[in-house]
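(Protein data)
===
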Amino acid sequence: MLAAQGRQLNDISLEEIDWLGRLRRGMEKTRRGFVTQLLDSLGDDPLTPEVLDDLESLLLRADVGVQATDQVLEALRKRLNEEVVEPAEGIRFLKEQLKALLDAPIQASGAPLLAPERERLNVWLMVGVNGVGKTTTLGKLANLAVRSGYSCLIAAADTFRAAAVQQVAVWGERSGVTVVSNPSANADPAAVVFDAIGAAQAKGTDLVLVDTAGRLQTKHNLMEELSKVRRIVDKLAPDAVVQSLLVLDASQGQNGLKQAMAFAQAAGLTGVVITKLDGSSRGGVALAVASEAGLPIRFIGAGEGIRDLRPFNSFEFVEALLAK
């Protein structure tokens, strides 16, 4: 499930079929304002420049972003100049373009699907502002890792929010995952990470998930605190495989893109997790993140359940977005 290593983690199952249905339902709000109007614009006649103007407005309203929208329309206009494009062919070509946009940063990363490497310590830093579902996402990832056969440990390093530590403890109990925390108020996050890495190295743990602060209640700079945590990881586990995953709330649209840009440098982002697709009409922000921030989408969440977080698949996403 975390990756298709020999397909043992991603074999088609009833659970996956159910997931595809949930994803489609989760994209309903985005699709309702996009596909219906798109099909109305297309009608039964070949594509026209006027239809592309309508498509531009629809893409921008779905928070696909200016850069991604321009790229898609440029490809469509080129195709339109070369031949007559019937509606069905136009939809198929649009799907190809959207999928290519989403796949580009994934291919550039050299890792089509993200999974912990065997025989090495893997440290995944979960970053993002408060309220995007960061701690919940970490808990779901822990559950997914355990179900996929990996040993896992959680570092409750969002010490500036007492509720976060308690929330992580609940998720750890649900999945049978050890949680390393410090009961002291405003404890040093780097110290928690220090203890967690030491425990993971002693036990030969596959994956350490680190919950980081999304807002500080002191005068410390959030980005500096994240950089400090990263330095501790690099110092204690120089051979570890480190991923820094930004959690974004789909409902925040273009604000989410701004967050990605802000976190990218300090946190050394390697990917994005998009949550709350089921409650948003702005699911197109995934395309903006991939195109403008150049960050691969690694996981998506489309529900509140513990299994409602899955590895990102561009084909599934585009089909759910453009389903009739």
